[in-house]
Write a structure and sequence with these properties.
It is built from 8 helices and 9 strands. With 259 residues, the protein is an alpha/beta fold. It has a domain at 15-80 and 188-259: P-loop containing nucleotide triphosphate hydrolases (Rossmann fold). Bound molecules: adenosine-5'-triphosphate and magnesium ion. Residues 52-53, 162 line the site of magnesium ion.
Length: 259
């Protein structure tokens, strides 16, 4: 599957004036509007407590909105979502291949019936030689690759990633950023990615949604028009530096450092 060019992309979901309040007074998220189109790579960038995880949990249906609505184009289906968290959350007693089988197993599909998909997903994240390994035998970056393979193996309509690379060293993180874009180009997935990192958000996204806290809200959207695939050349370009400055200014504004 190749991603459709801009303009021909179909809608995946809409968040309309979504508000989430906890205990009656903590406004975790206020009036969030977001339209997600197929093939989008959207980052939610903002300081701690601005409602990034809350937004993902609402989209994932793990929590209900207090006001506003989230609408899936064409209605919801069984295969809407793949989710990757900061911790790889693998089952330690199961092999790499068995871990990636999990979303199919939960739907009652046997290993044999989806073996090809599992192999393909592990090949795409570069782990085709580790099918029979156990999580304890893998590095942090490799575990995260398994987690990504598991999230995409069913080819969901939307992949949610909540600071997936935050616990990794910078070199591993850069490599996984590159690999994630390669993966996106190959399978044409749609991603909402939460990060604290300006550099990561600019490198990966076509849209950066900058958020502020107390109350959690969207304050700005930064568009990154640089074409994919993006390489080290983009990472060291003047365009990249200028976009990082723009996102960084928006983030400082979100943190109240600019009036
Ligand atoms: N289950 C909950 N009960 C009460 N308050 C909550 C709950 N979940 C989140 N909050 C509050 O909502 C606000 C937004 O939290 P959220 O976890 O979405 O922020 P975040 O942007 O993901 O932060 P971080 O970058 O630290 O992960 C915070 O003030 C948080 O304390
Ligand atoms: Mg969070």
């Amino acid at each position: 599957m190749t991603p459709a060019p801009m303009g021909q992309r179909s809608r995946v979901l809409d968040m309309t004036r979504v508000t989430k309040t906890f205990n009656g007074d903590v406004v975790a998220l206020r009036d969030m509007d977001l339209s997600v189109n197929s093939g989008d790579f959207i980052s939610l960038l903002g300081p701690s407590g601005c409602g990034k995880s809350t937004a993902l949990r609402l989209i994932a249906g793990l929590s209900n909105t207090s006001a506003g609505r989230i609408t899936w184009a064409g209605g919801q289906s069984e295969n809407d979502l793949g989710v990757v968290f900061q911790e790889p959350t693998l089952m330690p007693w199961a092999t790499v291949a068995q871990n990636v089988w999990l979303p199919f197993r939960l739907k009652g599909q046997s290993y044999a019936s989806v073996k090809d998909e599992i192999l393909e997903a592990l090949r795409l994240v570069g782990l085709e030689n580790f099918l029979e390994s156990y999580p304890r035998e893998l590095s942090g970056g490799m575990k995260m690759r398994v987690s990504i393979a598991r999230a995409m193996v069913t080819k969901p309509r939307l992949i949610l990633m909540d600071e997936p690379f935050a616990a990794l060293d910078e070199i591993t993180r850069f490599r996984l950023n590159n690999d994630l874009l390669t993966l996106k180009a190959r399978i044409g997935c749609t991603v909402i990615f939460v990060t604290h990192s300006v550099f990561e958000s600019v490198f990966l996204s076509d849209r950066i949604v900058v958020m502020a806290a107390r109350p959690g809200r969207v304050i700005r959207e930064v568009h990154v028009d640089a074409p994919y695939p993006r390489s080290e050349e983009f990472r060291t370009s003047a365009e990249y530096a200028a976009l990082c400055r723009e996102a960084s200014d928006a983030l400082r504004e979100a943190m109240g450092e600019i009036a």
